[in-house]
Specification:
Two copies of one chain form a homodimer. Chain A is of the alpha/beta class. Chain A has two domains: 136 residues, ATPase, nucleotide binding domain (Nucleotidyltransferase, domain 5, 2-Layer Sandwich); 156 residues, ATPase, nucleotide binding domain (Nucleotidyltransferase, domain 5), CATH 3.30.420. The first copy, chain A, is built from nine helices and 13 strands. The first copy, chain A, has a five-stranded mixed sheet with strand order 3-2-1-4-8, sandwiched between helices. Chain A has a five-stranded mixed sheet with strand order 11-10-9-12-13, covered by helices on one side. The first copy, chain A, has a three-stranded antiparallel sheet with strand order 5-6-7, with helices on one face. In chain A, strand 2 and strand 3 form a beta hairpin.
Amino acid sequence: MADDVVVALDVGGTGIKCALVDSAGRVRHGERHPTAPQRGPDAVVTTILDLSADLADTAGRTGLRPRAVGVVVPGIVDEASGVAVWSANVGFRDVPLRELVGKRLGVPAALGHDVRAGGLAEARLGAGRGYRHVLVVPIGTGIAAAHVVDGQVFTGAHGAAGELGHIVVRPGGPPCGCGLRGCLEAVASAAAVARRYAERAEDAAGADRVAALAASGDPVAAAVWHEAIDALADGLLTGLALFDPEALVVGGGLAEAGDALLDPLGRALRARLTFHREPALFRAALGDGAGVLGAALIAQDALNRECA
Amino acid sequence: MADDVVVALDVGGTGIKCALVDSAGRVRHGERHPTAPQRGPDAVVTTILDLSADLADTAGRTGLRPRAVGVVVPGIVDEASGVAVWSANVGFRDVPLRELVGKRLGVPAALGHDVRAGGLAEARLGAGRGYRHVLVVPIGTGIAAAHVVDGQVFTGAHGAAGELGHIVVRPGGPPCGCGLRGCLEAVASAAAVARRYAERAEDAAGADRVAALAASGDPVAAAVWHEAIDALADGLLTGLALFDPEALVVGGGLAEAGDALLDPLGRALRARLTFHREPALFRAALGDGAGVLGAALIAQDALNRECA
């Protein structure tokens, strides 16, 4: 129905993106609110429930029918049971968010993982549209991957699949927050690029500026940028060997560099292919709206299952 | 039905394992025949079709009803279209085996990939029985992986998923047959263990004897064996980060070493876990009969789809 919408929330460490999305994937209404996690997890849960109810009211007032609700959160999420198992930056521990938000709104509900839901949106509605096997790799503070086949994303047995940022590409390399050394994330995340540049240049610059400096001939920036691209090519090659996707979608902060990332990354990846089939390589199309669209998609899926 | 069976063939470079398997997964009749690939791919196809027909006749003569047929082959297999795309050791190039064997027998047919089908059998009937998310890793001449979720195995977009043997665990390490350097397979396959021992000891020994020599204190064998185990732990850790399985099943020639492999491998893997959830670690249970049981399972699945 054109007037049916789902209520969608993407809960991050800083902000909560909210939307009413119709069944064609169009955002009919959008809002942003602070998460303020320092208030503690109970307060954040209350905010999520209140915002969901407000959005449903907004829908009703504007002639839209809220038919389902989807919430995505970071950390470890058990999609099957609808529980936010653990999230450092929001403070959740075993919060049954799906049940809570479904009860509050009285409609079918879904809980998802922010990266996997964003990947689902990129695969179904964004850069991966039209492909059946898509690997979506957001490269920001961390690096993760969502493996989407036929519009479904893999969660793994414990909701922890797709940790592409923590495959070791440089044995004995720089320490990673996870406790290992030489993880892809420790060399090639946007945060790692900025940190590695700061260490060597004794100057601060975000990953986008490091890319620009590298393009303008700065040797330190060029070294940091190309080390990141080489590591990404090595990590993505492992992704190709294991997942064999048709399309590879690169997003997150590092992809803001655009062709300065995609062109050399595509070349580095092609240079490494042996038996691997070359996937189509794209920059993510949905930007930081992917998560909330993913929340809408899992809500829509929950509604479809209910109606089936 | 107790008297319904499927015709199952596992075609390898050396031999063809054949079986009649009932719906409970019991082998009611088994045969082995030479592949003789030097005769050329057309002759091998004729042998496969003739053997399938003979097996169906054998079933009929012994009061069994052949309801479907499943064939698994090595190389690159497009399960969706039923085509053996490429197989070096059998000589196939774009052979529509599913259609050929289905027509010959007049029953539903399935074509599968030997490693993925063997992994499916281990997950459903073997060591992974009772687990929903299973990663099956045969370690023989090469190393591969079958990722099985809810009894279905992932093929990838081009039938090339699961190439765990070709993730680079030792950058700049020994050359691999695939053209890269430092692939897991180049350090830790049964063939690599034998080759690396021969290079250093100037003496020939299979991987199982290298394991025995390592256990008895031979320093060269111990070095080769532990390098293989360390590389396996590194490669499997990447598998855990990306797939997040509940159960990890290790098979193939190297697993013949039993606890001499599983005990140190489990320790090495546990020592590397950080955020990863520890999976149950098992030795494969079906031995070299996994492939033909997998052929039976995909035949049974094809029959179930036909009857649905």
